[in-house]
Design goal:
single chain; about 550 residues; alpha/beta; Rossmann fold; GMP Synthetase, Chain A, domain 3; 9-stranded mixed beta sheet; 5-stranded parallel beta sheet; about 35% helix; about 25% strand; globular; binds 5'-O-[(R)-(benzoyloxy)(hydroxy)phosphoryl]adenosine; 2,3-dihydroxybenzoate--[aryl-carrier protein] ligase; transferase; AMP-bd_C; ligase
């Protein structure tokens, strides 16, 4: 196994001087995910790695299953660097699949269960995926039909692998074989693609390497004090960066602990699992935190094993933050992260006011932060500005997106997060808002332009602008403001049109308003700020 080789085309990487520095300083240690699991199986073979459904796999069992599945993938013709779109719910098989791909150097593309034909079709086509892994049914949706549709439209897609009843496709359970020796990837290779929340017309793909992601795990495990005693409940969608690696299930494996899979984050599913498995830590987005805080089930279950509730993905209000300890009897950890890299944590031993009122600080001393104004000039200490960041686990560019990368990164390699933040005198970050054209719907990210493009495809839509409107529960909801062509269509017809185009349901507008014209900025662009302000006003004034 070499330590470095030619990079995957279309994946920007770190300049050689940075890469050398990150290696020499010990951030990148030349590890791979395939080897990590092998090492844990050697050291903690009989300990339980993963619990979910009827499964209870030890590290040795998981490792052996991964070897057999990798051999089967290889026999199907899947090779190093081939892309495989993985869309599975919170089941143990999710890790079996991704570790098998890691071990052979094939690259998972992490789709969410909520994605539909529009997103999946795009991921498969854009990455020239050779395989697509799905459940038969989940959440009332049959993924086999979706796969049929995507396969017909994607010439590169050779295999649809189904967990459960395969129908006309291939059963995942039929793939495993006697292990064979496979050449693994280099630590500097891309390991997988995460998805960006995005602000543009199509979702962007985030290439993460073994070196950089494993460092982010190690730093997360250290800050969050995960150990062999950790029992982590995976309640958010497993493929998302937060439950995957902050420290998430992969961090739990890194530490030799136990990960428990919840098919739903709702209290009726999660609380019994916490009680039964003696879960010590879990992660939620703010709206789910409110559901847990308000649930009467908290009194019916023994949640005393839970030591830490991590909350991130969107801004948690100070009021909700203050309720966590008194209501659930566990500590709170705020997490402000992004799939592109940088993750900030409040520390477990921070004073309660810092935990409740800030989004924490970078996990690595090698994370470089800048808080700047619109001209990239640093703001005065304590002022609010755009957050830029660079470091050993923050990407230098999206996959095959040269023109976008020129805007999303500074010339010296800082990622423009699109977040507006301020730094407290203690060095903690407070998220004050957002400059990117995105709606953060309780942690689910909606790129305005993506939804606008779909709306513009409707014959009765002359123009469309999608903006956030405030919402008590989700923080924000989406509002599509539409200039109709001729008579305005019924909002329900427009939403049906978007669904029929295969848009994930969290991107379907919560509200549709019709207007004759958009407010404009000085240079004649749509002023989304003015739109948001006028919507806020009209929504808060009761109609006469
Ligand atoms: C996480 O990752 P993504 O890629 O879905 O979204 C990143 C964006 C950030 O740029 C920020 O706009 C927002 O989500 N965000 C927060 C936040 N955490 C994320 N905004 C306010 N407060 C927070 N605590 O969302 C993610 C990735 C890893 C760990 C945690 C969250």
């Amino acid at each position: 196994m070499s330590t470095s080789r030619e990079h995957l085309p279309g994946c920007p990487t770190w300049p050689e001087d940075f890469a050398r520095r990150y290696r020499e300083a010990g951030y990148w240690r030349g590890e791979t995910f395939g080897q990590l699991l092998r090492d844990r199986a050697r050291d903690f073979g009989t300990r339980v790695a993963l619990v979910g459904g009827a499964h209870r796999w030890t590290y040795a069992e998981l490792d052996a299953r991964v070897d057999r599945l990798a051999a089967g993938f290889h026999a199907l013709g899947i090779r190093s660097r081939d892309r495989v779109v993985v869309q599975l719910p919170n089941v143990p098989e999710f890790y079996e699949v991704i570790f098998a791909l890691f071990r052979m150097g094939a690259l998972p593309v992490f789709a969410l269960p909520a994605h539909r034909a529009s997103e999946i079709g795009y991921f498969c086509a854009f990455t020239e995926a050779v395989a697509y892994v799905i459940p038969d049914r989940f959440g009332g949706f049959d993924y086999r039909g979706l796969a049929e549709q995507v396969k017909a439209a994607t010439p590169t897609l050779k295999h649809v692998l189904v967990l459960g009843d395969a129908g006309s496709h291939t059963a995942l359970s039929s793939v495993a074989m006697e292990p064979v020796t496979l050449e693994g990837p280099a630590p500097s290779d891309v390991a997988f693609f995460q998805l960006s929340g995005g602000s543009t017309g199509v979702p962007k793909l985030i290439p993460r390497t073994h070196d950089d992601y494993l460092y982010s795990l190690r730093a997360s495990v250290d800050v969050c004090r995960f150990t062999q005693e950790t029992v982590y409940l995976c309640a958010l969608p497993a493929a998302h960066n937060f439950p995957l690696s902050s420290p998430g299930v992969l961090g739990t494996f890194y530490a030799g602990g136990t990960a428990v899979m919840a098919l739903s984050p709702s209290p009726d599913v999660a609380f019994p699992l916490i009680e039964r498995e003696r879960v010590t830590v879990t992660a939620l987005v703010p709206p789910l935190t409110m559901v847990w805080l308000d649930s009467t089930l908290a009194r019916k279950h023994d949640l005393s094993s839970l030591k830490v509730l991590q909350v991130g993905g969107a801004r948690l209000s100070d009021e909700a933050a203050a309720r966590v300890r008194p209501t659930l009897g566990c500590g709170l950890q705020q997490v402000f992260g992004m799939a592109e890299g940088l993750v900030n944590y409040t520390r477990l031993d921070d004073p309660e006011t810092r935990i409740v009122t800030t989004q924490g600080r970078p996990m690595s001393d090698a994370d470089e932060l800048r808080v700047v104004d619109d001209d990239d000039v640093p703001v005065a200490p304590g002022g609010t500005g755009h957050l830029l960041t660079r470091g050993p686990y923050t990407i230098r560019g999206y996959y095959k997106a040269e023109a976008h990368n020129a805007k999303a990164f500074t010339t010296d390699g800082f990622y423009r997060t699109g977040d507006l933040v301020r730094l407290t005198p203690e060095g903690d970050l407070v998220v004050e808002g957002r400059a990117k054209d995105q709606i953060n719907r309780g942690g689910d990210k909606v790129a305005a332009e993506e939804v606008e493009n779909h709306l513009l495809a409707h014959p009765s839509v002359s123009d469309a602008a999608v903006v956030a409107i405030p919402d008590k529960f989700l923080g924000e909801r989406t509002c599509a403001v539409v200039i109709p062509r001729g008579e305005a269509p019924a909002p329900s017809a427009l939403n049906a049109f978007l669904r029929q185009r295969g848009l994930a349901s969290f991107k379907i507008p919560d509200r549709i308003e019709f207007v004759a014209a958009f407010p404009q900025t000085g240079v004649g662009k749509v002023s989304k700020k003015a739109l948001r302000d006028s919507l806020r006003q009209s929504l808060s004034t009761p109609s006469p």
